[in-house]
């Protein structure tokens, strides 16, 4: 099955004082989804924002709000992210002992369910969870920070794509995606590309055409 490639800029690389305009700028410049990185200073060694901020982003997002939770525990916050307007809610398999319950709860709250795998977690760990997933996010950096170097997970992506078979499940790649690495992961079977620094580098809300150029460079590299 050939899937259209989606580019999901991560607003972790945006101006934190100007999220509304940043979101509008990347969407005007060709973003397919908006990727929102939630970090708790516990599951990962960095802190970003929580449900009230995500709710404030919602009216600015015209495409898909793709919320990546790097938090533990997850379950007590699922309802809050549904109310905040997440379209896709992704939790880490490593965030607790009951990812099956977490995925059920995300779907039960009316969102698409995503499962993220850290670089050290094998594809096979997701096998009994795939029927509950709309998306599997393969981390190609250890989560916590933007701007890190890409870790080659192409063999894992290939195994996951084979395990998924004809099920309607996205494979999203998060970390170090740029025009050089994007073709590798797409060739292996990914269809959603998160990119923070490679999209925001050099641009601003006053020079949004640079975001457009950066998005196009990734798209051209995979087409
Ligand atoms: C990493 C985050 C990523 C990050 C990607 O913990 O989940 O979404 O912002 O940033 P780049 O594209 O700069 O690696
Ligand atoms: Zn992310």
CATH classification, class level: Alpha Beta
Quaternary structure state of the chains depicted: single chain
Q: Radius of gyration, Cα only, in angstroms?
A: 16 Å
Give the number of helices.
8
Kindly report the CATH topology: TIM Barrel
Q: What is the mean predicted local confidence, pLDDT?
A: 98
- List SSEs in N-to-C order: EHEHEHEHEEHEHEHH
Low-confidence residue ranges = none
- Named CATH architecture: Alpha-Beta Barrel
List the helices and strands and how they pair.
Layout: E1 6-9, H1 19-28, E2 34-39, H2 51-57, E3 65-70, H3 78-84, E4 88-92, H4 99-108, E5 112-117, E6 135-139, H5 154-164, E7 170-174, H6 182-188, E8 192-195, H7 197-200, H8 208-222
Helix pairs in contact: 2-3
The structure holds D-xylitol-5-phosphate (DX5) and zinc ion (ZN).
Zinc ion is lined by residues 10, 35, 37, 68, 174, 194.
Describe this structure in a few short sentences.
The protein contains eight helices and eight strands. With 223 residues, the protein is an alpha/beta fold. The protein has one domain: Aldolase class I (TIM Barrel).
Report on the architecture of this protein.
An eight-stranded parallel β-sheet has the order 1-8-7-6-5-4-3-2. Helix 2 (51-57) packs parallel to helix 3. The mean pLDDT is 98. The protein has eight helices and eight strands, in the order E-H-E-H-E-H-E-H-E-E-H-E-H-E-H-H. It has a single domain, classed as Aldolase class I (TIM Barrel, Alpha-Beta Barrel), CATH 3.20.20.70. It has 223 residues and is an alpha/beta fold. It binds D-xylitol-5-phosphate and zinc ion.
């Amino acid at each position: 099955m050939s899937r259209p490639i989606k580019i999901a800029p991560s607003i972790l690389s945006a101006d934190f004082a100007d999220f509304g305009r940043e979101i509008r700028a990347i969407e005007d410049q060709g973003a397919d989804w908006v990727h929102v990185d939630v970090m708790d200073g516990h599951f990962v060694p960095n802190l970003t924002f929580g449900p009230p901020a995500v709710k404030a982003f919602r009216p600015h997002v015209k495409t898909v709000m793709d919320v990546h939770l790097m938090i533990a525990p997850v379950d007590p916050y699922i309802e809050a992210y549904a109310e905040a307007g997440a379209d896709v809610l992704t939790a880490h398999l490593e965030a607790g002992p009951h990812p099956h319950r977490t995925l059920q709860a995300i779907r039960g709250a009316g969102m698409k369910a995503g499962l993220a795998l850290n670089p050290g977690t094998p594809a096979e760990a997701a096998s009994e969870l795939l029927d509950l997933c709309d998306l599997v996010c393969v981390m190609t950096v250890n989560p916590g920070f933007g701007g890190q170097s890409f870790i080659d997970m192409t063999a894992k992506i290939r195994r996951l794509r084979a395990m998924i078979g004809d099920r309607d499940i996205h494979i999203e790649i998060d970390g170090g995606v740029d025009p050089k690495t994007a073709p590798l992961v797409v060739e292996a079977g990914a269809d959603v590309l998160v990119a923070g620094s490679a999209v925001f580098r050099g641009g601003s809300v006053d020079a949004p055409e640079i975001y457009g150029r950066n998005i196009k460079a990734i798209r051209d590299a995979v087409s």
